[in-house]
UniProtKB/TrEMBL annotation, chain A:
InterPro entries: Myotubularin (IPR030564), Myotubularin-like_Pase_dom (IPR010569), PH-GRAM_MTMR6-9 (IPR048994), PH-like_dom_sf (IPR011993), Prot-tyrosine_phosphatase-like (IPR029021), Tyr_Pase_AS (IPR016130), Tyr_Pase_cat (IPR003595). One of its GO terms (biological process) is phosphatidylinositol dephosphorylation. Substrate binds at residues 319-320, 382-388. One of its GO terms (molecular function) is phosphatidylinositol-3,5-bisphosphate phosphatase activity. One of its GO terms (cellular component) is cytoplasm. The keyword Lipid metabolism applies. The gene is mtmr7b. This is Myotubularin-related protein 7-like. Residues 134-548 form the Myotubularin phosphatase domain. Residues 570-581 have a biased composition (Basic and acidic residues). The active site is at residue 382. Belongs to the protein-tyrosine phosphatase family. Non-receptor class myotubularin subfamily. Gene3D superfamilies: Pleckstrin-homology domain (PH domain)/Phosphotyrosine-binding domain (PTB). Keywords: Lipid metabolism.
Length: 657, 560
């Protein structure tokens, strides 16, 4: 398959010869020598070795930082850290050239406007009709229909058409039948960013629902009649229960602070915030200090005195700033060089990462239990209702509904709970050079929760961890328009559907490499039997090596039972076909096919390595010539094919340990 | 009840003095992964039998008393609670009180028995306490066990030095089979036949035995076909504070390597520890006396430290606080995974010396019956594809653990729950199985056996129907007639009906060495064993089952 590049990306800015290059995350120990090129979109390294001519392409938008340690006598070094946890080292002899590359990369990897992003120039060789079709691959309305909505309890509302009530919500929303537009609008005024309570998931078996919103602006003795009516309507839309749970996913200390100041006026709140600086440490979560006073003056949670028939439940998921620093710590743990078991476990504990993952999963489990076992509807919110709320709702949905555990269902889930409900992708994943305090691994954590679940239920998910890791990479790399922007409205205003492509059809096309061979289809069963009830004891959580360790630095690629089984299944499928066709088995008998060694997969991955066995290329024609015949790095090996020498060089020696 | 009637009259007679109450009705059993059930509890000389009396079910639970590591009993006077019971219940119970026995097993299962009647409860508890730690081996259950599907005429065991020698013809040029230990007089913990260098005669061996701890003179345990190098193992040299030498010992080691070549000695103690060992009569091979041998030290924990590590780990696994920090710090504090890491990396070092460096290696610690065997076994699995089949692995265990004199009786007398004062208990064999599991997990296609086998062995070493792991060495087994009077576990595992369960459906033999990663991220807690009785393990077992079914299906298609 030939990949066509646009003219824009073929501009070559810079090239430097005799660069030594080291792919640290794939366990490479010896640097290879070659030429480095910078294009508008990629950093490209081509090995000198005429036999392999290995090429490594790194998309600029995937690079999170370019560090330059102090130069040594042998030359200068640049370290490229990618958002998917790849780390590349470049050794450049001339300091001047190093400076030049550093400056260029600093500019190229920090786009300031959307128009500079790769997704607007990336062209995976499809025509306009196909592009339009690609955007309708995921249809959220049909997913609501699948869960039985609209019905006599939940109805579609046009209140948010043209995003006039809430600009971070989608235009298509479902609300309780007994909630007229006046209540919706009233409630939205009382909720942070206008994010009023709406339906996220409807459980057909129990008629209970998962709903989401943002926090009420009740911090200082405020109340809102319409909002109270709205919650009453949510409760009534579940005939099986006479109360609802309101899940506040923030840690309890927040609630205690609010409670103590419940009867204060807004003015009192403001003056307190300005006078009592020490309190700021409690909610650094709320952004810059300046904005905080205004915001905090209204914040809070539902007062049980004003809302009848609600049960408040606090589940302590930490804020985006805690999560950001926690992830940095776990990345550092992954980068430790030959740590002892003690160093590793201390590092893991100290990062707090698994504790946070457990908190999110616990939130999901609470919601799923309430809906499936107790038949009680749940309203979930955090502060703005686009980070922790998205995590909790989507984890609950995946526990409740086997459909979301399929490849296509999972895409729908992300499109629904994250993309359409205004998770701020461009802020959280630093698509543009912006406020670093807005960046946080919110979706990473959701993907990790799903991975932890798939480790506990190896037969329950149609997809494997490669699928999760690919989604993670695409979220950060912005090759596709799907995850660009911060809301549906922003995407519409940018006309992304006309200017970029959707990622989902691409993932669907590659589904064979994302399929879990152990998957047992539970869709035939009714919903309640398909509910996952995970154990969330601490010992059930492991570090997700696959994400943080990519190729697993010191570890040689292992034998993978899943790949083996996929191959086995593919083969038996072929054999069956051959049998039915009464054909003979090809000479040499059945051979094992490893899915990853398949040729001809279109190169759509933001980092890819390519081995060409063609003679050295002339530089001018380089970009256009290398576009043919690419295939991804072969990452699996079969027990019969690994040369022991190679393995030892990867593993290192036991003499050293 | 049928199991009890299998002709155990003599057994019942012998142990009757310890059994005051043999039967209790109306007992409630709480066990992990099952709802509580009510039924009859019986105690015999070797078993605890619970038969469910629920309608439509005749479930029985048969527990070998030897499996019980510790019990806790609490007796309550129920009179105070009489109002909680209905009239009928009340009148039944007013005659006495009731009690609860918590039974903690060596397979890490925890059961609870609610027994009506204080006296019965105390009697049962007393019987369990006495009968679960009988010290006389000849009274243990393997001597009474008579399976219907195995015949006592079956050959006992799978492998021996003789067999190994005859299977490796390449050995015959430079090595011989010596029967110097035929009556166990030279080394009580060695089997009657051992493989030694051809140039060393039996008299020399006797002198060497006097110079090595417990008479464990260096013997061959592995021959590497690819380059003719070998692994030897033995006990520490008894050089003592005076740096005593033994000419014969030096000759023996010299005979292992060619005069031009060199060899490695892997000592499972640190260099400080070996210096200390000299003060108590032990020691090491000094550079001056053994100029062709290079010593490498790797400190491996054994004995009490290892047992305490296991106790801490099991305690951590039972913690129900739901606190992540606490779990991780307890896991770290137990040091169990550090021990796994050290064992695997020392084994990797040994294999690297032989396979990559192409030199012969002598392994020893102090006695050479614990860590020495652990390291040599793992190294063989890493290098030798023959050890990676089901049969090959069992044969390896038989040679390297049973016949090589790992004192199972002493090491596996108690497990992690026991309250008795620790003596010689140490979970070295369990550590081996954990390391093998790590290999199995890192190379799921390279080993011919399943996790189920490792789990089975992890319990059989502590309590068993079979005689395989009885006693501390060959001499003791011979004296008690273990091979004549009991059945062999390994043969039972290889029966056609059992075998499938213990084979790895994904097995694809490879001739290459399987080098384990010892990076902390690559090592994991062995959930299947340590968290076996937690609910989610079931899903992992289902996945294994699914893998097996898929491969079977595939086999059918491929054959047709």
């Amino acid at each position: 398959v030939i990949l066509r590049r646009t003219t824009c990306s073929s501009q070559l800015f810079l090239s430097v010869e005799n660069v030594r290059f080291l792919d640290r995350s794939s366990g490479q120990r010896k640097a290879s020598v070659g030429t480095l090129y910078l294009s508008a979109t990629h950093t490209i390294f081509v090995e000198n070795n005429p036999e392999s001519r290995k090429e490594t392409w790194v998309l600029h938008s995937l690079v999170s930082s370019v560090d330059r340690p102090p130069p040594t006598p042998s030359g200068s070094q640049l370290i490229l850290r990618c958002k998917d946890f790849h780390v590349f080292s470049l050794f450049i002899q001339q300091e001047r050239e190093c400076t030049e590359i550093h400056t260029a990369l600093n500019r190229l990897t920090r786009p300031e406007s959307y128009s500079e992003l790769y997704c607007l120039s990336f062209n995976p060789n499809v025509n306009i009709e196909d592009r339009a079709q690609s955007w309708s691959f995921i249809d959220l309305m049909s997913d609501y229909k699948r869960m039985g909505v609209p019905n006599n309890l939940w109805v579609h509302t046009a209140a948010n058409s043209e995003y006039k009530v809430c600009d971070s919500y989608p235009s298509e929303l479902f609300v309780p039948k007994s909630a007229p537009p006046s209540i919706i609008v009233g409630s939205s005024r009382f909720r942070s960013r206008g994010r009023f309570p709406v339906l996220s998931y409807f459980h057909q078996d129990t008629l209970a629902a998962v709903c989401r919103c943002s926090q009420p602006l009740s911090g200082f003795s405020g109340r809102c009649h319409e909002d109270e009516m709205m919650l009453q309507a949510l409760m009534k839309s579940n005939p099986g229960s006479d109360y609802i749970y309101v899940v506040d996913t923030r840690p309890k200390r927040w609630m205690q602070w609010c409670k103590a100041r419940r009867h204060w006026t807004v003015e009192q709140g403001r003056s307190l915030l300005w006078s009592d600086q020490s309190r700021f440490s409690i909610w650094r979560s709320d952004g810059r200090l300046n904005a905080m006073a205004n915001k905090a003056a209204g914040k809070g949670y539902e007062n049980e005195d004003h809302y009848s028939n609600i049960k408040l439940q606090f589940i302590g998921i930490e804020n985006i700033h805690v999560m950001r620093s926690s992830q940095q710590k776990i990345i550092d743990v992954g980068e430790m060089r030959s740590p002892s078991m003690t160093d590793f476990l201390w590092g893991l504990e100290n990062s707090g990462w698994l504790k946070h993952i457990k908190a999110i999963l616990d939130a999901g489990v609470f919601i799923a239990r309430a809906v499936a076992d107790e038949g009680v509807s749940v309203l979930v919110h955090c502060s703005d209702g686009w980070d922790r709320t998205a995590q909790a709702c989507s984890v609950a949905s995946i526990l409740l509904d086997p459909h979301y555990r399929t490849i296509q269902g999972f895409m729908v889930l992300i499109e629904k709970d994250w993309v359409s409900f205004g998770h701020k992708f461009s802020h959280r994943y630093a698509h543009l050079d912006g406020d670093p305090r807005e960046v946080s691994p919110v979706l990473d954590q959701f993907l990790e929760c799903v991975w932890q679940l798939s480790e506990q239920f190896p037969c329950a998910f149609e997809f494997n961890q490669r699928f999760l890791i690919s989604i993670h990479t695409y979220v950060y790399s912005c090759q596709y328009g799907t995850f660009l922007g911060n809301s549906e409205k922003e995407r519409r205003d940018m006309r992304l559907r006309d200017r970029s492509h959707s990622v989902w059809p691409q993932l669907w096309k590659d589904r064979s490499k994302y399929t879990n061979p152990l998957y047992q289809n539970q869709l035939s069963q009714n919903q309640s039997q398909g509910v996952l009830r995970p154990n969330t004891s601490p010992y059930c959580f492991k570090m997700w090596k696959g994400l943080y360790h990519h190729m697993d630095k010191s570890v040689p690629p292992r034998q993978s039972p899943a790949d083996f089984l996929s191959a086995v299944r593919e083969e038996s499928h072929q054999l069956e076909e051959e049998l039915t066709n009464h054909q003979e088995v090809p000479p040499g008998g059945p051979a094992h096919h490893y899915p990853c060694s398949r040729q001809g997969i279109q190169h759509t991955h933001p980092i890819h390595v390519q081995h060409t066995h063609t003679p050295p290329l002339k530089r001018q024609t380089y970009v256009s010539t290398c576009n043919s015949g690419t295939h991804p790095p072969v990452s699996t090996w079969n027990s019969g094919t690994h040369p022991p020498g190679d393995l030892m060089s990867i593993c290192g020696s036991y003499f050293r340990t | 009840m049928c199991i009890m009637r299998q002709g155990h009259k003599e057994e019942l007679m012998e142990f009757s003095e310890h059994i005051k109450t043999a039967n209790v009705e109306d007992v409630v059993l709480h066990q992990p992964l099952h709802p509580p059930s009510r039924g009859t509890l019986c105690i015999t000389g070797h078993h605890l039998l619970f038969s469910d009396r629920e309608e439509n079910s005749t479930r029985q639970i048969l527990l070998l008393l030897r499996n019980i590591d510790a019990i806790e009993k609490s007796v309550e006077n129920l009179l105070g609670y009489s109002s909680l019971f209905s009239k009928a219940d009340y009148s039944k119970r007013i005659s006495g009180s009731s009690g609860t026995i918590t039974v903690k097993c060596k397979d890490l299962r925890v059961l609870q028995l609610d027994i009506p009647g204080m006296e019965q409860c105390l009697n049962i508890a007393h019987s369990i306490e006495t009968l679960s730690c009988l010290n006389d081996v000849s009274e243990m259950y393997p001597f009474f066990y008579r399976p219907s599907d195995l015949s006592s005429q079956d050959q006992w065991g799978l492998s021996s030095s003789e067999k190994y020698y005859s299977e490796h013809k390449e050995l015959h040029k430079r090595w011989r089979l010596s029967s110097v230990n035929r009556d166990y007089s030279v080394c009580p913990s060695y089997p009657p036949a051992v493989i030694v260098p051809k140039d060393i005669d039996d008299d020399t061996l006797k002198k060497v035995a006097k110079f090595r701890q417990s008479g464990r003179f260096p013997v061959l345990c592995y021959y590497h076909r690819k380059n003719g190098m070998v692994i030897m193992r033995g006990g520490q040299p008894l050089t003592g504070a005076n740096r005593k030498r033994c000419r014969e010992d030096e000759l023996l080691l010299q005979a292992v390597i060619d005069s031009s070549d060199k060899g490695y000695i892997i000592d499972t103690r640190s260099s400080q520890q070996v210096q200390q060992a000299r003060m108590t009569g032990g020691g090491f091979e000094s550079k001056s006396s053994y100029s062709c041998w290079k010593r490498l030290h790797r400190q491996m924990e054994k004995g009490k430290a290892l047992q305490e590590s296991l106790i801490k780990l099991v305690e951590a696994c039972g913690d129900e606080s739901q606190n992540m920090d606490r779990w991780l710090s307890k896991l770290e504090n137990s040091k169990w995974l550090s021990h796994v890491q050290t064992a695997l990396s020392t084994a990797g070092l040994l294999a690297e010396c032989v396979e990559r460096d192409g030199h012969s290696v002598l392994v020893h610690g102090s006695e050479g019956t614990d860590c020495t065997l652990l390291v040599s076994t793992l190294a063989q699995l890493i290098m030798d594809p023959c050890c990676r089949t089901l049969e090959g692995f069992l044969a390896l265990l038989e040679r390297e653990w049973v016949q090589a004199g790992h004192p199972f009786q002493l090491r596996c007398a108690h497990s992690a729950y026991s309250h008795v004062r620790l003596q010689q208990e140490s979970p070295v064999f369990l550590l081996l199985l954990d390391c093998v599991w790590q290999l199995w997990r890192q190379f799921p296609l390279a080993l011919g056996f399943s996790e189920a086998l490792l789990l089975r062995l992890a319990t059989e070493a502590y309590f068993s129907n079979y005689g395989t792991f009885l006693c501390n060495n060959d001499q003791e087994r011979c004296a008690l007639g273990v091979k004549e009077k009991t059945y062999c576990l390994f043969h039972s595992l290889l029966k056609p009906t059992e075998k499938e369960h213990y084979t790895n459906p994904l097995y694809e033999p490879t001739d290459l060495a399987i080098w384990p990663s010892v990076h902390p991220q690559s090592l994991q807690l062995w959930r299947g064993f340590f968290l076996r009785w937690t609910p989610q393990t079931r899903h992992l077992e289902e996945a294994q089952e699914e893998i097996r079914n898929m491969v079977i299906e595939w086999g059918k298609v491929a054959l047709s």
